[in-house]
């Protein structure tokens, strides 16, 4: 399986007066525009996804939709991707799927920890996932801690350079 880990784009600050809850934070205009360009850059690298799984949080769902606009794929909301995600829950869910190429859209620090556990079986690897970054992890057989190979990790500025 090719697993793409995508951090949500730039969202309004959690202390913004209009924000009622962290789950309802939305993407800024800048975040939307930058993610659209980054998604075009991602589309220049891959053919598409079998499915895009997203956190139920608004900023993640909006990011997933931008990615799906550039790389058409069904979007499925996944409660396990809200902040506090655990590798075991995600691995179990993915093992039950027959998809070959999926994307997960979520939050930090969970995504960095998910990458770390995927490739090293620990959460000690330091991984930098800026807002809008994408990492690809390949699992040749089972999805289990330490079984993944980090194929690449592109920060949003790199993806936007590809999408220009």
Largest sheet: 6 strands, mixed
Query: Structural class of the helices, strands and pairings?
Result: alpha/beta
Number of strands: 6
Residues in β-strands, percent: 15-25%
Rg value: 15 Å
Low-confidence stretches: none
State the shape: globular
User: Number of helical runs?
Assistant: 5
Could you estimate the helical fraction of the residues in percent? 25-40%
Q: What's the rounded overall pLDDT mean? A: 94
Tell me the strand order in the biggest sheet: 3-2-4-1-5-6
What is the terminal-to-terminal distance?
A: 29 Å
- SSE order, one letter for each helix or strand: EHEHEHEHEEH
What does this structure look like?
- It is a single chain.
- With 164 residues, the protein is of the alpha/beta class.
- The protein has 5 helices and 6 strands; from the N terminus they run βαβαβαβαββα.
- The chain has a 6-stranded mixed sheet, sandwiched between helices.
- The longest helix is centred in the N-terminal third of the chain and has 15 residues, at 29-43.
- It is globular.
- The two termini are 29 Å apart.
Topology:
Layout lengths: L1 E6 L21 H15 L7 E4 L3 H13 L4 E3 L9 H9 L5 E6 L3 H11 L13 E5 L10 E6 L1 H8 L1
Parallel strand pairs: 1-4, 2-3, 2-4
Antiparallel strand pairs: 1-5, 5-6
Helix pairs in contact: 1-2, 1-5
What is shown here, in short?
With 164 residues, the protein is an alpha/beta fold. The protein has five helices and six strands.
Describe the structure using short key phrases.
alpha/beta; 5 helices; 164 residues; globular; 6 strands
């Amino acid at each position: 399986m090719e697993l793409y880990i995508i951090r949500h784009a730039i969202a309004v600050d959690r202390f913004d007066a209009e924000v009622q809850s962290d789950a309802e934070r939305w993407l800024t205009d800048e975040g939307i525009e930058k993610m659209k360009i980054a998604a075009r850059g991602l589309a220049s690298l891959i053919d598409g996804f079998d499915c895009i799984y997203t956190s139920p949080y608004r900023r993640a769902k909006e990011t997933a939709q931008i990615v799906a606009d550039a790389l058409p794929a069904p979007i499925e909301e996944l409660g396990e991707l809200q902040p506090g995600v655990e590798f075991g829950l995600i691995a179990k869910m993915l093992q039950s799927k027959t998809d070959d190429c999926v994307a997960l859209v979520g939050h930090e620090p969970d995504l960095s920890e998910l990458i770390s556990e995927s490739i090293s079986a620990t959460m000690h690897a330091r991984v930098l996932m800026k807002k809008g970054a994408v990492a690809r992890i390949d699992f040749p057989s089972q999805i289990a801690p330490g079984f993944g190979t980090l194929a690449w990790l592109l920060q949003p500025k790199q993806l936007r350079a590809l999408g220009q």
